[in-house]
Design brief:
- Pfam families: PmbA_TldD_3rd.
- It contains nine helices and 20 strands.
- By secondary structure, the chain is of the alpha+beta class.
- Helix 3 packs parallel to helix 4.
- The chain is globular and about 70 Å long.
- 47% of the residues are buried.
Length: 464
Amino acid sequence: MSARTHKPHEIVERALELSRADGCVVIADEESTANLRWAGNALTTNGVTRGRTLTVVATVDGREGTASGVVSRSAVTVDELEPLVRAAEAAARGAGPAEDAQPLVTDVPASPDFTDAPAETSSAVFADFAPALGEAFARARAGGRELYGFANHEMTSTYVGTSTGLRLRHDQPNGTLELNAKSPDRTRSAWAGRATRDFKDVDPGALDADLAVRLGWAERRVELPTGRYETLLPPTAVADLLIYQLWSASGRDAVEGRTVFSKPGGGTRVGERLGELPLTLRSDPHEPGLESAPFVVAHSSGGDQSVFDNGLPVAATDWIRAGELHRLTTTRHSAALTGLPVAPAIGNLVLDGGTDRSLDDMVAGTERGLLLTCLWYIREVDPATLLLTGLTRDGVYLVENGEVVGEVNNFRFNESPVGLLGRATEAGRTEKTLPREWGDWFTRAAMPALRVPDFNMSSVSQGV
């Protein structure tokens, strides 16, 4: 009999019953996905998948401290539950004391729907989107464009149970749309992406219309050299840069002098002003439209997450408040080491505090500069300054006297998101966006466009 014939909460309870360790955490992730793919103005594939992953964390107390062992497996049958639990216990007994050891979390009210069946997605999520996509295909075909892309919707129900009595559950919908429009000779390309919870707020026709305008801009080609240019970064590009900044905001690493947030001579830059614009970078598990788990879900320890923190409630957190560094990410363990407040990572990111001007308004206010579409292949060059490198893609446009006058060549850039926040002269309206580079790992973001007076285009790229 498969474990899928049992409800996830029953699997969690049974695994906890089987545990002989001093402490135990069980995480059941019930996942379902639905997707559509298309190429050349025609649907190519669609499908629905289901799956379950079970993670068991065993903790064993010893004279030198508490050790932990973690084992995760998918498609576990009921008969395989006990071997899985024993494997986690054996891993704990074979490990040395865990540096991040803390008492398992207690006293968190149980989720009222813990014993309910998991939420699931299906092809029905595309009931309105698919016909609209077909209409976009027809318009693109008539306009001499080819559309490529995919739409994906996931629903993950996560159940967390612990030997200390926690019984928590969170349902996480996650949808992404990526749409490329290309000229028939493939020399011009434009991209648009959206993140969504249910595809009810996504209009493929409107996206195609925007991409048609961009392909029109690209009919005129202008070659530009490397250099520093006034640049308008759209929300998707801002999200990719600031997500990497958040991933690099470890409180422990900063205290140990290893990051851009380390203070020369010791300590951190918390309390320091990072830029003149009064921008706030924040996360909130209850942010409307960007809701994420209101408690820690850690399938492994490392960096600034700890399996010992599973179930720890998370709350709205300002990482940067009105331009000033306010929080760095910590676990309970790293907070105790550094003296910083406990501040676990949260599954969304918002930058606000700018004006109500749209990206089009910002273009209209530009005398001469570059308008980017998106960034990709972002990699770290120097953690001490958080210098990143990457490439522009699918359209870099020249703006003169408030109008886009053509497409320019792609570039490789070298920039630090912390430095960009310090030099930005304008932030526009905050809106939900899909990070293109990190969209496989982090989709719940809302960002404004940013105006940077001297964005460093370090070399010319031959990419489209």
